Automatic annotation (TrEMBL):
Family annotation (InterPro entries): Tnp_DDE_dom
Ranges where the record places region Disordered: 1-29
Keywords assigned by UniProt, alphabetized: Plasmid
Species of provenance: Methylobacterium phyllosphaerae
Coiled coil start-end: none
Domain (Transposase DDE) ranges: 2-84
One Pfam short name: DDE_Tnp_1_2
Record bears the keyword Lipoprotein: no
Protein name as annotated: Transposase DDE domain-containing protein
PANTHER family: BLR1914 PROTEIN (PTHR30007:SF1), PHP DOMAIN PROTEIN (PTHR30007)
Amino acid sequence: MADRGHSSHRFRQHVRNAGAKPAIPSKRNEAPARCPDWIYTNRNIVERLWARLKEWRAVATRYEKTAASFSGVLCLAAALDHLR
């Protein structure tokens, strides 16, 4: 998912080459591109979650050196955010 600012055929092709389906709405001056409305509309939920998780200093600065330990800190932060 991305904003209209990332709307270009090259970027959409890059996303497809990575094995994903782009969910980027077209700009107003471009030809319409397929973008599921419900995905783009609900993207703010994910953006707000990341904003809350970045309030944790360990998540924002990534003190953890390994992916496994960073994933643990991320899960802990998400769980505590959910409980709050």
